[in-house]
C-alpha cells in the first residue's frame, strides 16, 4: 500500500421521488441507503460530508442525527433542490434559509458548505456566491468545470478559487483527452476500475485532492425501475442511472486500500486554506 491523497467523497442526500410527479408511489429508499453508506464509512473509519436537501432533513430528522453522531459533516444542498437557473438572488436566499433551518432543527451545527442542485452553479448563476457569502458560507462545491449535457462551467478551470469570499472547490476531472468527473456518481459507476485507479494515481502526482459526489440511488441495487427526473426523459441516460450500482462499494474499497483517505470538506479546508 502506498500513501496517497485525499478523496473528498461526498453524498448528496436527496430523495428523487420528491422531484417527480406521483413520486410517492415508489418505495422509500433514502433511509436504508443512507444507513448503508454510514455502515461502510464506519467500518473504514472514514468521515465525509453529506450535502442535505432541506426536505430530507424535515422528513428524516433521526437520520440526520445518526449522520451527525457518526461524526460526518452536514452541509446544504438547497431546500427544494431547485436548480439555480430557476432562482434569483432573492429566492435563492429564502430557499437556503429554509434549508439551514431544517438542518439545524435536526441537530446540525456550524454549517459551512453548499452544493448546488445538479451542479447548477455556472457562469450564468455566479450571483449565488454573493448570497452564500451573506449567509456565512465558507465554501461551495457546486461547479463542474467541463462541458456537460446538463450543466457545466468549463471556463472556471480545475483549481479551487475564491469568489465573493466563498471558496469554490470544483469537481475533479480526469486528465484524459475527454475530461470526465471520474470520481463521482454515474461516471464512477460506469467507468472500469482500472481507468478510475489510473485517474486517481495521476491526480495524486499533481498533488491535488479528488472530489466526487454520490447519491442514495448510486448504491441502490433494489430500487424499482422508473424514469429518473432531470434527464429529459432520455432512456439512455436513465439506463446509466441504474448501471453498475453494485460496483460502488467494491470500487471504493479498492481506492481506500491504496491509501486514499476520505475526510469531510471542512477538515480539508481547515488543513489547506487556513
Ligand atoms: Zn442533488
**Mean pLDDT across all residues, rounded?**
95
Secondary-structure element series: EHEHHEHEHEEEHHEHHEH
User: What is the CATH topology?
Assistant: TIM Barrel
- Judging from the principal axes of the Cα atoms, what is the shape? globular
Strand count, sense and barrel status of the largest sheet are: 5 strands, parallel
Query: Could you tell me how far the N terminus lies from the C terminus, measured between alpha carbons in angstroms?
Result: 30 Å
Q: What is the overall number of helices?
A: 10
DSSP helix fraction: 25-40%
| Strand residues, percent | 5-15%
Q: Can you tell me the CATH architecture? A: Alpha-Beta Barrel
The figure for the number of domains is 1
Bound molecules: zinc ion
User: Would you state the CATH class?
Assistant: Alpha Beta
Structural class: alpha/beta
The CATH homologous superfamily is called: Glycoside hydrolase/deacetylase
* Total DSSP E strands: 9
Using the CA coordinates, give the radius of gyration.
Answer: 17 Å
Protein architecture, described:
This protein has a single domain (6-273), classed as Glycoside hydrolase/deacetylase (TIM Barrel, Alpha-Beta Barrel), CATH 3.20.20. It contains ten helices and nine strands. It has helices at residues 30-43, 54-59, 61-69, 89-105, 128-134, 185-190, 193-206, 235-242, 248-257, 265-273, and strands at 6-13, 49-52, 73-76, 113-114, 139-140, 161-163, 166-168, 210-214, 261-262. Strand 1, helix 1 (30-43) and strand 2 form a beta-alpha-beta unit. 43% of the residues are buried. The mean pLDDT is 95. Bound molecules: zinc ion.
